[in-house]
Amino acid sequence: KAGVTQTPRYLIKTRGQQVTLSCSPISGHRSVSWYQQTPGQGLQFLFEYFSETQRNKGNFPGRFSGRQFSNSRSEMNVSTLELGDSALYLCASSLLAGHSTGELFFGEGSRLTVL
Amino acid sequence: QKEVEQNSGPLSVPEGAIASLNCTYSDRGSQSFFWYRQYSGKSPELIMSIYSNGDKEDGRFTAQLNKASQYVSLLIRDSQPSDSATYICAVNFAGGTSYGKLTFGQGTILTVHP
């Protein structure tokens, strides 16, 4: 069974630009959660989608947004990039509402560098 | 603010020893507890989950939960160099809503030296 696939794996942007990251969950999984990981802050929850509905949201500004499609694939978008947005963005899928249950399967992440 | 705290380490143990990783949490309503392992440059991987007080064993790994003292620990017996990784504690507090809030600790770096 294929794992969680995230694209792109690496990207470099400049301040003020926007970025869209994509996540394909494990087949049959309906929940997708997004996390930001930085050395100083650890894993920070962004949001969770389940059956195309946002079920949970972390404490990030409105520049961070996401959506989920009917095939459970998810995208997150960050607009007006800031230097502090440089991080590893991890997507996790779960059969049920994973962020709520804690049983998450992570993708390899998208490493964003903002210059 | 619901918090999960771990000693960031690094924790260094010799090969064959028992590695003990600890995690404390602030919210008494927390209901489920998880340990993730993250190798350098890789993504986190769920290795243990525990829901009730006591011990849960899986191979060389034992998770221990004490809700009264609000701590959860992970013991790794017969530690191997391949166990060298960051171990992240995660705690889920269901609260009054249908959807819980999973909070992660900062992770403890474990180094097992030959």
What does the model show?
The complex is a heterodimer of chains A (115) and B (114). Chain A has one helix at 98-101, and strands at residues 5-7, 10-13, 19-24, 31-38, 42-50, 53-57, 64-68, 74-78, 87-94, 105-106, 110-114. With 115 residues, chain A is mainly beta. In chain A, a hairpin with a 2-residue loop joins β5 and β6. Chain B is an all-beta fold. Chain B has no helices and eleven strands. The N and C termini of chain B lie far apart (40 Å). The mean pLDDT of chain B is 90. The A-B interface holds A 42-45, 48, 55-56, 90, 97, 99-109 and B 32-34, 42-46, 49, 88, 90, 92, 94, 98-107.
Estimate what percentage of residues of chain B fall within beta strands: over 45%
N-to-C SSE series of chain B?
EEEEEEEEEEE
Order of helices and strands of chain A: EEEEEEEEEHEE
Q: Radius of gyration of chain B from the CA trace? A: 14 Å
| Helix content estimate of chain A | under 10%
Oligomer: heterodimer
Short description:
Chain A has one helix at residues 98-101; strands at 5-7, 10-13, 19-24, 31-38, 42-50, 53-57, 64-68, 74-78, 87-94, 105-106, 110-114.
Features:
heterodimer; A: 115 residues; mainly beta; four-stranded antiparallel β-sheet; 1 helix; globular; B: 114 residues; six-stranded mixed β-sheet; five-stranded antiparallel β-sheet
